[in-house]
Structures are given as structure tokens and as C-alpha cells.
Amino acid sequence: MKVTLFATCLVDMFQGNVGKATVELLERLGCEIDFPTSQVCCGQPSYNSGYVEESKSTMKNMITAFEKAEYVVTPSGSCAYMFKEYPHIFKGDNVWETRAQSLADKTYELTEFIVDVLKVEDVGARLDGKATYHTSCHMTRLLGVKEAPMILLKNVKGLEYVELPGKERCCGFGGTFSVKMGNISGQMVDEKVCNVEETEADILIGADAGCLINIGGRIGRKDKSIKVMHIAEVLNSR
């Protein structure tokens, strides 16, 4: 099966290890990986800030970049959902709405792709430790991917899973929200870190780079010995 990787700008710029883990994991599951070098940002930051028309050129570039893909897979529920929004953004445009819908239909978040398309629930991963999982807002509330990460994590050998209190609450990142509403965002991530500490977990796992950068940054500033890992890294552990 040929898979085209949508790495996302956060992974590209800040978390290259997540991109590497995603590729290695998918290859181990029998996928052939393609990477269009013309991909950039999906346009979500500017779009969510209200610059709809200004974001469309970026979106058109992404639609074109992934036009020939059979499956588009990304280690980010937030960015996968943005692709799903494209048909609504281009609604009424006879050319771009159809092309946007084609992209939306073949786009999957990583764990969703593994469980629902590849039909794999145990990837053969092993990671010793006690872990909890942060459910990011876009991935769960908008994209609707809730069960796939749990199915895969509960089959990781050696991993003791503890549910995170208040898991449905936002970590305070929210893209540009964390910049525009810094004080509120800071209080939200403080609450999230306190909830993580309550679990006594050694590892915090998540599926969106933005959330992990935000929470991980707060954990670091509070000098807490909690390892932060993207779920791709966990599933690629042997």
C-alpha cells in the first residue's frame, strides 16, 4: 500500500523525530512511503485567525501537492481535520471544491489509518513504563478519532496505562490562542500538568505536536521528570 506522508509544519520544524517514527512505523506495517516536497503549512493558523481568503493560496498548494496520493496520512489529528475542512472553505468553487473533497476523502490521522484502514490493532511495540494520554481537542471533538489511539496503546507491551483526569479539557495551546490569550493559556496548561502529575505517570503521550510542545514546555519549566512522547514514537518503540 502506498502512503503519502503529510508531515505538518510543527513536525518538520520542531519534532523531526516524530516524522521519522511515523515513516518507520508505517514501513514496518508494509507501507511504501511517498513525501511530496512541495508540501508546506495546511493554512490552519491564518484560517483560524480569520484570514480565510488569504489562506486559500496555501490550501491550493496543498491540494495540488497531494493530488496523486492514494492515501494521505499525518501524525496530527488537528492537521488531518484541516484537510477535511477544505471542501467547506471552497464550497461553490466548481474547480477547487471537487479537488478539495478528493483530498479530504483520502486523508487519515496516523492511528485512525492503522486501525481502520490497515486493520491492525497490535503493531508489536514495547515500552516499559506508566503512561497517560492527552486527548487533543481537534482530533477527538472535530475529527472524531477517539478509540484508535486507545486500542493501539493498550496493546503496547510493558506499558501501564492510567486515564488522565479531565482528559477532555483543552491544554491551552489552540494554535494562535496561546499567543493571543497567553495568560488564560498558561492557566489551562498548568491545570493539565497538575492532572498529569495526579496520575503519577512517567510518560505523557499525545497525538498532536502542538499540544505536546505546549504541555512539554510547561513540564520542563516546572522541572518535572515526566517524559513527553508522541504516539508515533511509542508505537515505534521496540
pLDDT average, as an integer?
Answer: 95
Taking the sheet with the most strands, its summary is:
4 strands, parallel
So what's the oligomer here?
Answer: single chain
How large is the share of residues in beta strands?
5-15%
Shape descriptor: globular
Number of helices: 13
Along the chain, the helix and strand elements come as EHHEHHEHHEHEHHEHHEHEH
Coarse structural class:
alpha/beta
Termini Cα gap: 23 Å
Q: What is the topology, as strand order, of the major beta sheet?
A: 2-1-3-4
CATH architecture of the largest domain: 3-Layer(aba) Sandwich
**Which CATH first-tier class of the largest domain would you pick?**
Alpha Beta
Radius of gyration: 18 Å
Annotated CATH topology of the largest domain = Rossmann fold
Which stretches are low in confidence, meaning pLDDT under 50 for 5 or more residues running? Answer: none
Total beta-strand segments: 8
Helix content: 40-55%
Count of individual domains: 2
Question: How would you describe this structure to a colleague?
Answer:
This protein has 2 domains: 2-116, Rossmann fold (3-Layer(aba) Sandwich); 121-235, Rossmann fold, CATH 3.40.50. Helices cover 51% and strands 15% of the residues. The protein has helices spanning 9-13, 16-28, 44-48, 52-65, 77-89, 96-105, 110-117, 137-142, 147-153, 177-180, 182-199, 209-221, 231-235; strands at residues 2-5, 32-34, 71-74, 107-109, 126-133, 157-161, 203-206, 227-230. A 4-stranded parallel sheet has the order 2-1-3-4, sandwiched between helices. The protein has a 4-stranded parallel sheet with strand order 6-5-7-8. Helix 12 links the parallel strand 7 and strand 8 (227-230). The longest helix has 18 residues, at 182-199. The protein is globular. The mean pLDDT is 95.
